[in-house]
Specification:
mainly alpha, about 0% strand, 13 helices
Length: about 290
């Protein structure tokens, strides 16, 4: 019962319109520093745009839709998710247009367009499969932080395995749906951001190189994917297989990646292991760890 309460609290505070408030706050703070000086008025403008179009409007629609359908706050029924997703797309796109018109910061402009397109991808997937909006909503701003802060931004990916546990424990998603939401969001965000910046010839702050971003994303998603796959397959001694994959992953990152990427990989892997141990024997990752 205590685990369910914790899982519910995590799920509530990581609802995308809520989660984006602190993460966009960090993004806006970073973007407001120019030549070592903090531009307070720029920060206020960026924060208002992101708050209104990425949080307040989408959340208002979700709350209205939940009340209208008399359903849970997660809108668990896949067919009921289409309208909130469409409204989210419209809200993000209007935010993109407003930011583009004002020309305050091109990074935020591209990010809002990225949000609109990524939500559209989620909408298309939702016609056939209930991919996790929570993990997609986490991976978007974390992907942006990777672009801005590199390995430091990637460390926010520690939330990814915790959120997977929360959504699966609450039976809102399968393991595959929870893991896939993050994988999709991380890659689409980084690749789209580079594409939009190139297409629109946006002048942005120096970004983490694309190849390093991809290495960092792989470091974040590697262990959750391994644990997710092992959760589904029926093989003997899953624990030994998991250890083997982790060692191979560590060797791979040590050979081909900067040390900072290795640190991120270790941090995420340790988080996954701790989550697995805490989760209890009704959680798939726990069963991978205890198998012999």
């Amino acid at each position: 019962m205590e685990r369910l309460k914790i899982a519910k609290a995590i799920s509530t505070f990581t609802n995308p319109p809520i989660l984006c408030i602190p993460l966009f706050l960090i993004i806006c703070l970073i973007l407001s520093f120019e030549n070592g000086a903090f531009d307070f008025y720029k920060f206020i403008a960026l924060e208002l745009i992101s708050l209104v179009f990425a949080s307040v409007l989408p959340m208002a629609i979700i709350l209205h839709w939940v009340k209208k359908l008399d359903t849970d706050s997660d809108i668990s029924n896949r067919e009921d998710r289409f309208t909130p997703l469409i409204v989210g797309i419209v809200s993000y796109f209007i935010g993109f247009l407003v930011s583009l018109f004002l020309g305050i910061d091109h990074f935020l402009t591209a990010l809002l367009l990225c949000y609109a397109v990524n939500t559209g991808v989620v909408l298309l997937i939702t016609f056939k499969w209930k991919i996790s909006v929570h993990t997609t909503g986490l991976s978007g701003p974390v992907g942006a932080l990777i672009l801005l802060l590199g390995p430091i931004g990637a460390l926010f990916g520690i939330l990814y395995p915790i959120l997977i546990w929360s959504r699966v424990t609450l039976e809102k998603h399968t393991m595959a749906q929870a893991v896939a939401g993050g994988v999709q969001g991380f890659f689409l965000t980084v690749l789209e951001m580079y594409l939009y910046i190139w297409l629109f010839r946006f002048d942005v702050v120096p970004l983490t190189p694309l190849l390093e971003c991809i290495w960092l994303i792989l470091a974040v998603i590697f262990t959750p994917i391994v644990l997710g796959i092992l959760s589904y397959i029926n093989v003997l001694n899953k624990k030994m297989l998991f250890v083997a994959f982790e060692i191979l992953g560590l060797i791979f990152f040590l050979m081909y990646c900067p040390l900072a990427v290795v640190v991120v990989y270790i941090a995420i892997s340790m988080t996954c292991i701790l989550v697995s141990i805490y989760a209890g024997d009704d959680y798939a990752w726990f069963n991978v760890m205890k198998s012999s």
